[in-house]
Structures are given as structure tokens and as C-alpha cells.
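MOLECULE: protein
FOLLOWS: sequence and fold
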Amino acid sequence: MSDKRRNEGRKGPPPLNQTRLEELALAYVARFATTQAKLRLYLQRKARERGWDGDGEHGGGEVFGALEELVGRYAEKGYVDDAAWAKMKAGSLLRRGYGARRVGEALGQAGVNEDLRAEQRPGLGEQRRAALVLARRRRFGPFAVQRGDSEDDPKLRDKQLAAMLRAGHPLDIARRIVESDDADALEEWGESEFGDD
């Protein structure tokens, strides 16, 4: 039997109305920690895919008003909390070894406003610890298994610096780690909030 015949009597999902939109939104926030912007984009995509069969309560059936009202209500009720999401995401990225720049980019892409991004910007100690996580994981600088002859290899050092910069770390922190030959001193430096030693 051909696919065409098998699917002949089937219809796609019905167009969205206020009730179905609410059901989709509730299922989404129950399943995923999210931001207002990400919820809004998800609901807009669903409305484009399925169409809108609203009852005219938002400007002649316009889905935009329904979406904005729903996202605003969910934010008021605490179902969607941009500040909590930003804190969770920033912490996760720092623990994985990403730097301040990459944290800010990820929060911006998720629609977190500038004030919340500024609140989550890591301090100097957090930046150093995140850089050390990456260096340990990727075996950069003194964390390499065998330093030997590659210790003075400028190409290797440049590759390691480039990787740390792509991960969002500032040049001074990346250089300090890659050019170091004392892992214990780096660990101490990573725990200090101030000073250059």
C-alpha cells in the first residue's frame, strides 16, 4: 500500500486556539527550563505550522496578542523565570570550562536581557576556575600528560591559546595557563580573587 493511500483519510493536527495554545505552552514549560523569548519562539513556530483558529479575543483572531498575553502571564506566575534560567545556564557553562564571553553569548541567544546578563557575568575568580577546568580537560599547559619536547612548541601553544579564546576566555588568563609549567601554582592562582600572582 502506498504512503499516499495510507495517509489519505488523515488530517494534520487542528489549528491552534486559545485552549490549545495554553496546553502547548504548559507542556513546554513543564518539560524544559526556558526563557520568555524561547517560549515565545516555540509558540510562534507552532502557530505557523498549525495555523490559528482563535475566537477573536485578541484583535480579530490575531495570534500575536494571545502569545504575548500567555508568555506574560507565565512569567508573572513564575512558570518562566529568566533570572533563574540565566543563573542555571551561566553556572553550567562555567563548570564545563567556558569563559565569560561565551556565557554572555549563550544568554543573549536565549533572549536574556542585558541587565540579567550583567548580573550573571562571572567574577575574576570564577573566570580563572572555568579556564582551569578547560585546561585540565583538554590537557593544556602544565596539565599535559607528557610535556617533554612539546613544551616549547610555539604551534602547540598557539593552538591551545586559540582554543581557550574560542571558549570565551580573556587572552591574559589563557596565556597565563598555557605558558605556565607549574600546575600547583596555577591551582593556587585560580582560587585567588585578586592579585596577579
About this structure: DSSP finds eleven helices and no strands in the chain. The CA atoms of residues 39 and 71 lie 7 Å apart. The chain has a mean pLDDT of 87. The longest helix spans residues 36-50.
